[in-house]
Every structure is written in C-alpha cells, then in structure tokens.
TrEMBL record:
Any GO molecular function: DNA binding
InterPro entries (alphabetical): DNA_brk_join_enz
The organism's place on the tree of life at top rank: Bacteria
Organism: Apibacter adventoris
Protein name: Uncharacterized protein
Organismal lineage: Bacteria, Pseudomonadati, Bacteroidota, Flavobacteriia, Flavobacteriales
Length: 113
C-alpha cells in the first residue's frame, strides 16, 4: 500500500492521489470485514493529506466580455457559457442529456447525480 501511495503521488496531483488512495484503503478494509484478510492492513497506512487549493474564477465583467467575443466554434462558446452560468464542470456538461433538464413553475433545473 505504501508503494501504491508513492506511485500515485508521482503520477497525479496530491488531492486526486488522496481520493484514489482512500478508495483503495476502503476496499482493503472491506476485505478485512468480509474475512478475506486476516488483518486490517488499511489501518497500518496513513492516508494522503489533502492540500488547500486556490480556485480561480472569472469575474462577471470577464464573462460579459466573453459573451461579446467572436468564436470560430459557436457550440464551444455556448457550452463554456453554459458551464459558467450553471457552475457545472465540463465532464458534467459533456454527459448531460435532455431528460435531465426539468421545468418546474417555469424555472429550468438540471437534475442529475
């Protein structure tokens, strides 16, 4: 498990490493609970500590400027602005389907897990 932790820290950013490593620790712990292991090896290894990250964001003025800016690919611009206004990540917008758009009392909602 220590080698896996070291490997993760060399391949991906710290907070992602922490998430992946905690998933593995949970799986090892679950194996112990199900009596697939004689010892809870997950207890021997400390988790990877997360670090605070500085999140960058666009100001209202910058978004307004982008709205006025020409773009060769209109669908790219519209998708980016949709992400800005819904606070959705690209990965969430990319997999969004029409069935996840809801209208309740004339207000549009995105309903997905």
């Amino acid at each position: 498990m220590e080698e896996f932790k070291a490997y993760l820290l060399t391949k991906v950013k710290n907070n992602i490493s922490s998430q992946y490593f905690n998933i593995m620790k949970h799986a090892v712990h679950e194996a112990f609970i199900r009596k697939l292991l004689r010892e809870d090896l997950a207890k021997r290894v400390k988790s990877i500590k997360t670090v605070d990250t500085k999140r960058e964001f666009l100001t209202k003025g910058e978004i307004e400027s982008l709205i006025q800016t020409e773009c060769w690919y209109d669908v790219l611009k519209q998708t980016f602005l949709f992400s800005c206004f819904t606070r959705s990540r690209w990965s969430d917008v990319n997999k969004l389907v029409w069935e996840e758009i809801r209208i309740i009392n004339e207000v549009h909602y995105i309903a997905f897990t």
